[in-house]
From TrEMBL:
Segments traversing the membrane: none
Alphabetical UniProt keywords: Signal
PANTHER family: ACR183CP, OS09G0542200 PROTEIN
Cleavable signal peptide: 1-25
Gene3D superfamilies on file: Glutaredoxin (3.40.30.10)
The name this protein goes by in its record: Thioredoxin superfamily protein
């Protein structure tokens, strides 16, 4: 019995290890989709922090205030880009990341206002409270939250952009980079391209 199980396990191991070949891995996009904080830049003249946050993750929420304080205290010598990074076990994280992309497209100065609103009200988007809600109902609720950050005149645009198929691919870029960097969750931070343990656990 044990020998009969050994062969399938070895085959699975070989199959999995072949997927780890770096030459077969997809490349990280050259242009990442993160959001510059306060119009940060130019990057070459500052220390760049890249943070990967899930808008409905309590750890991301708790890491945001100290990170924001550091960036504001040391700007312009320190710049920040936040990459929305939806975790698979948060059902509504992907929708929240889409909402951030939509807000950034409509009015880039409102992106961080919406991120902070997600952090403030994230408990209403946890798996339990939304278990009986439809995806469309959650999108509508997030559109209203987005309108609170952008202004009521943007509500129709927010609802419409949630329906655009093209936007469904937007959060894939930081997921690809996170996989490339072997991130296991959020929040994670890169300091000048290298993982920063301290920033990752603010």
């Amino acid at each position: 019995m044990a020998k009969s199980l050994l062969i399938p396990k070895i085959l699975l191991l070989l199959l999995f290890s072949s997927q780890l070949d770096p030459s077969k891995a997809s490349s990280v996009p050259s242009k990442l989709d993160g959001f510059a904080y306060n119009g940060s830049g130019p990057w070459k003249d500052s220390v760049l922090i890249e943070a990967f946050f899930d808008p409905v993750c309590p750890d991301s929420r708790d890491s945001w205030p100290p990170l924001k304080k550091v960036v504001e205290q040391f700007a312009p010598r320190v710049s920040l880009i936040v990459h929305p990074f939806p975790l698979p076990f948060h059902n509504n994280a992907y929708l929240a990341c889409r909402a951030l992309h939509i807000a950034n497209k409509l009015n880039s100065s409102s992106t961080y206002d919406l991120l902070e609103l997600f952090f403030k009200y994230q408990e209403k988007y946890y798996n339990g409270p939304t278990a009986s809600a439809s995806r469309i109902a959650i999108q509508k609720d997030m559109s209203k939250l987005g309108a609170f950050a952008l202004g009521n005149s943007f509500l129709a645009d927010l609802k419409m952009d949630f329906k655009i198929l093209q936007l469904t691919l937007l959060p894939a870029s930081p997921i690809g980079m996170g996989a490339h960097e072997a991130f296991m969750g959020a929040p994670f931070s890169l300091l000048m391209g290298s993982y920063c343990l301290v920033l990752g656990h603010l």
